[in-house]
Request: fold
Amino acid sequence: CQPLGLAILEELSLLEALKQTPHTLYRSFDFLDDQGRLLMRSSYGMGEGPYPYALAIEPHLMDHLLAKNLSSYSHVVLRHESDFRDLTVDSSGVTAIYGRGGETRQVLARVLVGDDGRHSRVRELAHIPGTVESYRDSYLGGSLLLPEDLASLTPAVRESACRYFLGPRSIFFFFSVSERRRFFLVLLPERNREKFFSKGVEAVLEKLDRHVPGFAEIARKNGLDKAEDFVELSVWKVDLERWCADGVVLLGDAAHAMNPHVAQGRNQAMDDAPRSGSGPCPGPSVGPSCPPGSPSPL
Reply:
């Protein structure tokens, strides 16, 4: 969670609860070349904001924290295990049609907020124009659980530094989200798995191990021994003419997708939300069809 998101969580009285959840606190992160030489250090303390740090946390733990907070409000109903299917707009408001428990159901609201990601079904059904397309490259990633005996690990794996290793057509991002949990992302040029793994998974692990000694051993112990064990994270361009339509407002990646390695998607969505209560519709152009109370321009 970046400083932008921390400020919003503080407003919601959730920051202290977040700090009680397993996490890693970062005051800076490093960019290094493919030889491990420092290119740049970005420090959160260089600004004038009240939060000179970021908190890295496993996404599902953040989801649980937010859901628990929402469920504490008497006027909020969480409909888990539901799939959004359609919407209709008339003088009475917006009707969201969804499936749950094998049944088709619906709910009426004044405004429907679509924070449903880069492949937004809300955006599609609202016919909001713009460019939505995948970039040429994507990322492969994974989550690694470290053994309880941390002393047995190499310093590069054990330490909680946040590091980007950059080279020609190469990005490797390795970081900690808790004492025993590490995440990584590696650039997949042209989204070509066959070429990327042409010399085998072991060759890929050994290459990454040169950046973070001990990485390969931990990856093997976590079952990353086949190409399909690496999760692909696509990178999408979402460039819309506006972020709203009749009765609909978009937030987060549904309105402006973020590259996964910058760790900003959730923060930007949280920043969008408070703006949805006042001002005109945001985005490059403001159409007359936007609902009252749409987000103000960013």
Notes: Residues 59-71 form the longest helix (13 residues). The chain has nine helices and 15 strands. Confidence is low (pLDDT under 50) at residues 282-289, 291-298.
